[in-house]
Amino acid sequence: MRKVVIVTGASSGLGKETAIILSKDYDLAICGRKEEKLEETIKLLDPSCHYFAKAFDMQDNDEIKAFCLDVKKHFDHINALINNAGANLKKELVKDITPDLLQQMMQLNCYAPLSLIQSFYPELLKEKDSHIVNVLSSCCLYSNETVGSYTCSKDAFNGLAKILVKEAKKDGIHVSNIYPGGIDTEFRAEARPNYLRPKTVAKAIEFCLENDDGSVQDLVLRPHYESNF
After folding, report:
1. Which end of the chain is flanked by fewer CB atoms within 10 Å, N or C?
2. Judging by beta carbons within 10 Å of its beta carbon (0-12, 13-18, 19+), is residue 74 exposed, middle or buried?
3. pLDDT digits (tens, 9 = 90+) for 118-170
4. Percent of the chain with pLDDT over 70
């Protein structure tokens, strides 16, 4: 029986590459914001993969709840959750951050992944060597100018994720927190060939899932050119 992995933000970038790589050995529940892009991901999944896919916006809490219910109905077991979905909606100085923008960032980068963890935790408890992989950011490790609201939202989730490592360990659930630097994805307005390739980070996520005799608790990946550490 193949393990089932949930991958959020699978319609593009890192999430798409992660879904493609994992589809060779795992069944998947994937989601993304744009249906047409999610369909492109589905076409690239390994033929052996049994999948469930749904397009919705992570800013809609009702849609998050509906997705979780649908996944539980579709699969009789869940082995891993990969919290990849997130966004940096705008760069700004701290003095210019608006409450509305900060709330949007918190929803995407903290509240939504927390909701997914809470919803799927009972299912993960039932399985041996289950995993939660949280894709954070190197901004949690270094204070970069003009990304205050993004850093704030990622830092908030980072605090929860680090505590979850200890709490989930007692329940037999592995938690891995990954801190990538710049990744050359559609997330960027321009191509950045000197950034990490999505496949590089996706393989790191795969390694976390396959490492059952221990836990990869904190993993930092940076492109060679970065020096902000």
Report:
1. N
2. middle
3. 999 999 999 999 999 999 999 999 988 999 999 999 999 999 999 999 999 99
4. 97
Q: What beta strand segments (E) does the chain contain?
A: 4-7, 27-32, 51-55, 80-83, 130-135, 173-180, 218-221
Q: Is 136 exposed, middle or buried (0-12, 13-18, 19+ CB in 10 A)?
A: buried
Cα 3 → chain centroid: 18
Q: Which amino acid is at 96?
A: D
Shortest CA distance to 166 belongs to which of 93, 213, 215, 106?
215
Q: What Rg value do the Cα atoms of the chain yield, rounded?
A: 17
Give residue 28's pLDDT: 98
Nearest residue to 202 (alpha-carbon basis) of 4, 62, 7: 7
- 183 contacts: CB under 8 Å, gap ≥ 6: 13, 14, 195, 196, 197, 198, 201
Burial (Cβ within 10 Å: 0-12, 13-18, ≥19) of residue 28: buried
Q: Who's near 129: CB < 8 A, 6+ residues apart?
A: 79, 172, 174, 212
Q: Tell me the C-alpha to C-alpha distance, in Å, between residue 102 and each of 84, 116, 146, 213.
A: 19, 20, 13, 39
**pLDDT-derived band at 188, boundaries 50, 70, 90:** low
Maximum C-alpha span of the chain = 53
Q: What is the dihedral of CA 54, 60, 62, 63, to 10 degrees?
A: 0
| pLDDT for position 50 | 98
